[in-house]
Structures
1.
Amino acid sequence: MIAVSRPSDGSSHEHTQGIDRLVLILWTLLDAFEQVILPRNEARPFRLSHLAFRVTWGPWKALARRIRSEERRKRFLAYYGPLSVLIMLSFWDLALIFGFSLGWWGIREGTFAHRLYVSGSNFFTLGLSNPPVTDLERLVTLIEAGLGLAFLAVIIGYLPVYYGVYSSREAFIPRFQWAAGYPSTAGGLVRRCTQLRDKSLVPEVLMAIQVWAADVLQSHRAYKLVALYRSQKGNESWLTVLTTTLDAAALWITLPRDGPQFGSPATFEIARRVAQDLAGAFRLRPESLPADRLPRPDFQKLCQRLAAAGMELNDSEETEQKLAHLRGTYEPYVYVLARFLFVELPAWIEDTA
């Protein structure tokens, strides 16, 4: 018989291991590049930053539910937003260190713990207790040290971007509360604008909301973790402002006797796009609400208050049906976002108690 030579198991194992470590390093670098250098909303099924978020946000919310004090629970939830960015950066660092430690497997003798130490020392440029000897060792050391310095630069430049986006979003909320009250309600926003009897006020308010909503859409799709940054105004989150905007725009579209308020359809479409796109960015499917946010008695009370403020209403049954239809196009999205982000949706009418 003729003997057929086969590759040794060790050679095949080393080849497979080399592919694994290369894939891990490239996968991590691609994720970091798309998140920082080229921010975009990619719906990749396996993404390290998404994995880091998924495995930490769920347990964090579970711990928050065990806190009885509402004030302490809010403070605890507020920590996660900034912390999530550090967690994501740490996941990238650890993945690269682990990938390069596998790279040292076929280059330097020793245990895996020793190779992991060498990889971490190179990545964080701590100085080597075991300097490289061969040309291949020197090349790997230079590559890993260079990536470590690059990630340090990323951290320095990345965090201010998040705080800039957060500050820009939050700066609008006090202005919005001036018109919508605190806590913000759609009924309060429409009633106050009606009472002032300034025809130019409502278009100005709607235009300011459009600019804010468009900015939130662009920034939060690129930097999704900013959505987890809690507002300093307690229950008044960016999602509260967005939902109140949608509610108020729906009222301005359906209730006025002489037709939709100028600017309200455009504001409604922009705000609805924000809710739909951000729900998709977090891979959330719209869900039906367990209870009606605006039952018929509350709708009638809302109409009475707006009529008393001087608004000429088209309060027919057809108007109520049209309002219900508009609500059905956005409420499932804001509801699933509220559940995911652990915030409460705003009421429709002001509490006068």
2.
Amino acid sequence: MFLAGRILAMMTNVERRQWLHVSFWVLALMTLAMLMLTSGCKKQHAAVDPKASEAAVRAADVSWSRAAQAHDMTAVFSYYASDAVVLPANSEMSTDKLGMQKVWSEMLTKDTDLEWTPMWVEAAKSGDLVYVVGNYTLTTKAGKGKPSKIERGKYMEVWKKQADGTWKAEADTWNADAPAKRGKA
């Protein structure tokens, strides 16, 4: 850990941003691989059409974004599977409802607006897992006479078809396009 910190300290801002970008995608792909591997250990279900799965998840993701835009926290949480993992940027991983509620209540306040749009939606050949990659915009309203703060970023979700036929997000992660702000050392 000490060595990694020293190496990061020697990197330029561009190198750090590239390292963070690569780290984000490595983590996202490892999560997707883990979910795909563990799904093979469970009882096999009838084949699902991957294109139908992609369309269903795309529609669910758009509805989820609308729920967030409406600040409907009950609806927002309804899109997560009971064993979901949330990996917010610059924060600890959340694996339970209380942790997820904390993440969302800190992010989605009366002074913020959040919306996201899926760019790529792709299903596994089995059709029971789908990943989504897209862009988000988080706008924080400022006080009188001050401009709003706009954060643009990307996200990745892994969705799984549930036993009841619904689609739920098993993994959810996002981060801003801008580099993380660093405090004074």
3.
Amino acid sequence: MTPSECTNKDDIRFQIDLIDKEIIALFAKRFQYVCEIVKYKNDVESIIARDRKNHVIRERGEWAANHGLDKDTFEQIYRFLLEHNIRKEMEMHERRPQTPKRD
């Protein structure tokens, strides 16, 4: 159903709820990749990856703007998301068994 096909607030709210469920499912799928990438990051610097973080934030803002959405809002959303993911990656990294150093 398209927005213009909705005939009342309940129709619109139902459609918004369906979209939000899809968005949450996509965030869950995205987080699975976040968990997986920790295997390839060997230190705190690679987890924080400032250049990558800044690039993603800017790019997602541009993607949002290309869809007629507010660039700054989506940059803030992704900044929050990436900072959350970095904290989770740090926790996973700290729990990972350390390999003994060879002399």
4.
Amino acid sequence: MKAATDTIELTFERTIPASPTQVFEGWLSPKVSGTPWNIAEKLSLDPKIDGFFYLHVKGISHYGRFTEVESPSRIRHTWVSPNTLGLESIVTLTFKKQGADTIMTLAHSGLPDTPEGRKHEQGWNYFLNTFPEQFGKASREEK
């Protein structure tokens, strides 16, 4: 068994046919499908520096604190759930203009290198495969 201090980082990238501002604002909106906030059964969301979030989905609580909110280029927040084994991990999203599109990158670091920690790959892919659809059919998976 690996030591509790072993961690992994997951990185995902999508090309979205919209401006960085549209993608940034869409990601923070609980009304937009494909975001963690949208599927929450219970939600508290305050997306500003030192603002907290809490979401409850399918009996599982997730929470964290926003540490960077730089519209329209970057969001960073902590992430704690039972699958992080109660440890604080970090989610960083960047939004970079590329022609008429936005390259959206999500990196989740500090996850425990356990089956529970690796479940985040499936979870983030679920969101990131749904979210770009809100901006048109030209969206595609990059990595």
